[in-house]
## 1
Amino acid sequence: MPQSVLVIEDDARIRRVVEMTLQREGFEVCEAASGEEGLARLGGRPFDVVLLDLRLPGIDGFQVCREIRKTSTTPVIILTARSDSDDVVAGLEAGADDYVTKPFVPKEIVARVRATARRTRGGGEPPTIVVNGIEVSPLAGTVTRDGAPIELTKTELRLFVELVADRGRVLSREDLLQRVWGYDYFGDSRLVDVHIRRLRKKVEADPARPEVVTTVRGLGYRVPA
Amino acid sequence: MRAARWPGTLRGRATLAFTAVAVALSIVLAVGVWLGVSRYLLVGRERATLAQTTANAAQVQRASGAAGLSTEQLLSQLPRETGSTSLLADGDRWITTSLTVGRADIPAELRQAVLEGTPARQRFDVDGQTVLGIGLPLASGGGYFEVFPLDELDHTYRVLAGVLAGATLAVVPASLLVGSWATRPTLRPLDRVAGAAAAIAAGDLSARIDPQGDPSLVPIARSFNATVAALEERVRSDARFAADVSHELRSPLTTILGSLALLEAYADHLPADGREGLELLRAEVSRFERLVADLLEISRADAGAEDAVLEDVRLADLVTESLSRRQTTGGPDVPLVVSPDGRAVVVRADKRRLERVVSNLVENAEKHAGGATAVRVEAGPAEARVLVDDAGPGVPEEERSRVFERFARGHDTNRARSDGAGLGLSLVARHVRAMGGSVALSESPEGGARLTVTLPRQEVPCDD
């Protein structure tokens, strides 16, 4: 079954060109010209990836992203016309998994969608691991504490699994960008930092004093063994 | 440098003028004092000696008829100041109270005038000492002389002259000090204006003059600040405009890039000239895209929306990755030389910007200077450096600062036709500055140009 992508973008030409590009690569593509329309489509059926423009008429991309996160763990890639760090970080804080800045070449967006979709499908993960009272089942894609499920997005889960599978070792931002997002050395390390922050909110007893995922200054992150 | 040029400054000139006037005045004053005081002393001395001589001459006159005392005894008992000598000329007989001063010592003129009945005085030397001789004719014939040493007075003159000369000389440093001290508050407003103007010239458009309650500065500060505010607003709105334009270009560019990629998938179905057209289109569009991206970054920086994402980066790793990325996208192989202490050096930098810096430098060398001959990473005690040497002829000294300007190109007309908008090095300078570093152009030991990027070194815990 082909993977499905929802493109929420108000610029009809960009929407069309993204649709054609993804269709050529074998994706099933649905379009939405506004945030409201996008949310309505998401309510109707599940998608593997959502491409979301930040600047939308009506409710903006940030708001759409937060709405999506309320009910779903579907990966969201934001499209931003700016390299503005505020926009990027705000989008990630709102729950986005990755971002692409305009103008982008089609190759780029295909690569991002593929990497994101791959992240969510898993494969070859170790069986259930328990760290710090938290039970991680990579194959089932579930995380529980004392039997209570912790809801993680696909990217958060992937990130957590990478850290847990290598527990005791420090993973640099570059390592994580490569393993989770498929970026090379020049990936944006804010992706890692924002996702770690989000992850901590969910798995830490006190996110201000993390014990599950610790920071090793100047080096990266670690899940103590 | 500042000290050497100081006499040329307004303050220096004012201080020098002040000093010149002060010295001239003190010379005039010293000469006046000298003339007045020496005259006064001399007159006083002459008056005192004349009074003594007159009194003594009268006593000699009175006693000459009386019996009892010999003339020698009389002379020796006359009241005299220490060191002076009395002489009495009685016909050819000269009687003196001194062993050293006798008839022969009295100048002939003086002797003659007195013996002919005219009182006279004269300065002359006895044994190398200046003396004053006063002679009065006696009613009985002959004359009475007194000789006074003047060395005391000479000594006084010398001391006076010394004091005056010393005081005049002391005026020079004193008035330099006073002058510079006195001109400082007067010219401080100028200093502040100059400081603010320099800051603006260096690119800090937020610099303003604070009059700090100095009323003389208020009007100039007001108009200066208004001018700068207008300038700043103008620069910002220009930058915003450029940012808006490049921003607006991004959406159509996205569509163009996407459509072009779709078209290229069908390139094989196109006739030869269609393929060539497509090829040209692709080349121009990617150049255009690059230009828009550069313009956007530059104008955003101008508009004050600097958004560097700073993190600790191992410089050698980053340069290695940048060069290998260039190589995988078809760039030529450039030798990388990492000095031993450069291997672990860490800088606080925006990775993607620093990557742009390295690739722009290498690209610039390829476009304009026959390629980069070497890229080096070095470390100093407080800084880390990336050096890019090229195979070109170098850049003349006078053009070196211009290469970092926007759209700057050398005189070589060939370059105007080559790709690249000429924003490369200007962007390098901007990115490097945003990361707290600097970039400089010099000559490489092999004769080409050498671009050196210097970044502050970051102290971080050692790696495992």
## 2
Amino acid sequence: MLEIKDLHASVEGKEILRGINLSVKAGEVHAIMGPNGSGKSTLASVLAGNAKFTVTGGEVLFEGENLLDKPIEERARKGLFLGFQYPVEIPGVTMANFMKVAVNERRKAQGEEPLSAAEFLKLMREKSKIVELDAKLTSRAVNEGFSGGEKKKNEIFQMAMLEPKLAILDETDSGLDIDALRIVATGVTRLHTEQNATVVITHYQRLLDYIVPDYVHVLYHGRIIYSGDKSLALKLEKEGYDWLINDYKE
Amino acid sequence: MCESVRKKFVLSHFFCIFVRLLCRNIAIGYWAQRRVTRFMNNDNQNIIDKLEKSDYKYGFTSDIDTEYIPKGLNEDVIRLISAKKCEPEWLLELRLKAYRHWLKMKHPTWGHLDIPQIDFQDIIYYAAPKRKTLSSMDEVDPELKRTFDKLGIPLEEQMALAGVAVDAVLDSSSVKTTFRETLAEKGIIFCSMSEAVRDYPELVRKYLGSVVPYADNFYAALNTAVFSDGSFCYIPKGVRCPMELSTYFRINASGTGQFERTLIVADEGAYVSYLEGCTAPQRDENQLHAAVVEIVVERDADVKYSTVQNWYPGDKQGKGGIYNFVTKRGLCRENAHLSWTQVETGSAITWKYPSCVLAGDNSVGEFYSVAMTNNFQQADTGTKMIHIGRNTRSRIVSKGISAGQSQNSYRGLVRIAAKADGARNYSQCDSLLIGDKCGAHTFPTIDSHNSSAQLEHEATTSKISEEQLFYCNQRGISTEDAVGIIVGGYAREVLAKLPMEFAVEAQKLLAISLENSVG
Amino acid sequence: MELQQLIAEGTLQPFKGDRIDDAEAVGVPLLVRASGSATIDVATRQRVHLVVLHDTAAASSIELRLGEGCSVDVTDVYTAECYAAMNVVQAEASCYRMVAVLLAGAHADYATQLNGAHAESDMYGVFVAVEREHAMVSVNTRHNVADCRSSSLVKGVAAGRATGEFRGMVYVAQDAQRTDAAQLNRNVELGAAHITSMPQLEIYADDVKCSHGTTVGRLDEEAIYYMQQRGISRREAERLQIEGFVCDVVSRCEVESLGTMLAESLNEKLQKL
């Protein structure tokens, strides 16, 4: 589904990604871990197409097609979803209106008819249950006045609405209390099928108790320096990164 | 108040300023300690004392033999001024061009000001102390030296001790400029405008009028035609001026208009902090002051220009006082930074808008202002930030304080030109009203021609808080004192931008200017 | 704007008189088509909703006199490029509330005189100027007596080569103590548009709480990125954001069917961006 080959990217002339190689297949869950500033969020942003970052080398194939030459919205319509670490507030734009446009754009791209208002509302109600999102929040402006937990739930709610092929969840667990973490993580697990794939970016092992990864990668200094199975996350939790990164320190 | 007591008070006051200047520059630590002590022990008492004394504190006249040109203005007077100053032909031509243009101009009426008819033929356009070209201190007129002593600028001691070079402008002609040698070592030129015209004609010719052209406005044209003297400052490429440069302006001769011309050039990567402070003798007839300050801030250069203006504001009935019509503007090249800070407490009428033309990409302009008016004073002051280069930024903080029957206006313009991508401005303009006979007005204009610009302007008007006054009273602080404290706090953000010794002075000035304003 | 439909439905009733002293008998908002000069007196303690429509290029001037204790809602709609003045004179304890929607490059001049204690004025306005339009809203609020409150919020969008202009004035007379006045202007500038904003305060009384603010901003790039990531095109993301920016003014219109109609017309116009 996703092939990343020797991906290099920089921000304001400073190289952050220094040759990432990663392959994600349908049905898989990958976890990307690593210390602060190693480039985890940059990787997510570059895949989504954030203009702040400049790709300086390498290629990315998504479903066999070049991802990097496509605008942000086209990547999204092809089924790439980014769960933001800090979801932005959009004053005046209601969740319902926002989601309706997004869902119908996706449907249009897939050659489907737009949903009627009734169908759409039904879909909203259904999907909001997955993350126990308060129905009142959908009539409010996007993320405006949402608590930290509500914002993260809202990200997973949108993921449920858009049914992406590949979901990249950037620190979706940060700032969540244990209950919210459980709800968010259970939601992600419920949305996981053999046809889609999930990449979770996280600092902590605790999220991986709920979302069990097939692979765990350690990102350090813009490269994946080590990959393993779910036991790697436990080892990192216990022993930290030092044993891995000593060889890579500049 | 008895004359001798007043003089004594003035003397001691200036001595205080001088001591602070000295202390700061001899040893910061010692100064700071002294300042703290002064604050703890004396400051409140001082303010109370001053609040009780109702006359203008800085009014005294020195009897110096002054050389005049007769009243009135025509081309011959301009030629005479130019000739007395042995000016080159191009400067005379500039003056005449400006004068001819001025004749066609009308007195500006857009200010929120009530300006009495000014008879421009009833003004003496040139007065200078007779004895000039002195080779040593001994040649300085003893009376003049005494005036300097009163001002707290004893030249000989300054030369020995102080780190602040002071170009004292008495009336129109610079008499003595100090510390030139120290500055000269770094290639810094700091001298009177007349000397600059004589010694560095190419520099003056290159920059004079390049920021404020003579046709800019009525008073800029008048100033260009008749400017008597002023200061010139040039900081060469990459040089950080090691001391704060300051000029004490002082209007002295009766009925003499003061037309100062200041030109500051900070060449690429240079830095200078320039202080301008003013006090003026008490007079009954109005005096016109129309200065022009031009600042050229070349690429990567940084200029900080601070003013404490405390000219005679007129008496409690609104009689007398200085008319202060000033044009101040700086031109910023790439990455340049210009910061204007002003504390305006004096003058009967203030008409003044220190501005920044942000021509270079990434240049930054700042304007910090406290304007206080009391009795019948009128102030219409503010700034213009003209964003031309990309990613230019500006910040405006204006604090107006109106008391008595005064009128105090903020007037500002923020313009974003079509090519100024990513320009940003933030403006905060607050007004404080003390008493129900005064006025506080805010007239900003925002004009954006670039859709990537971000501008924000906020203004509030309120009166001094009853709760705060009550709280202070309950702690045993008199109402008048409390007002001083509260106003000081209100103006703090701006005062903090001043060099330290000025900040202390300015805070006192605010308290003094507010006397008798609380019922 | 097919207001005829609202008239046919009985939601609005045309009004051509110069005095309103039994609004309750009518029961529905009154529609006034602005043209030439008109004076409308609203009698003491009347509650009335006026819909003013500017649909021709003619200049117009309406003087609205609010009697003691009356409460007047105005929805002022511009569908044609025109010049219009609305002068409101308020007596004691009167209450004025206005929503202005400029769907065309009109020049709307509002002047309000608060002449009686405890009078209140709340004004909301929105303009969307596209192509080469020039939209101008002027709000001049004069507190002539003590103990009055006023607020205004004008939101502007200028795109293309359009000009959006706001002129504001809050004037507080010397005896107008305990005035509470706030004025806010917020603008979004797109393309090669031009925004001018001149909010002014002229205050001669000291026991007052007065403020004004103005902003000129661009669209939030971060929000656009977020929406694009959800598959929404940039154009659509921009439109959604502008819609979000202007909708709160329109939503204050209390005649629901008219509010919906205004929102739709605004959205139609936003499609032109």
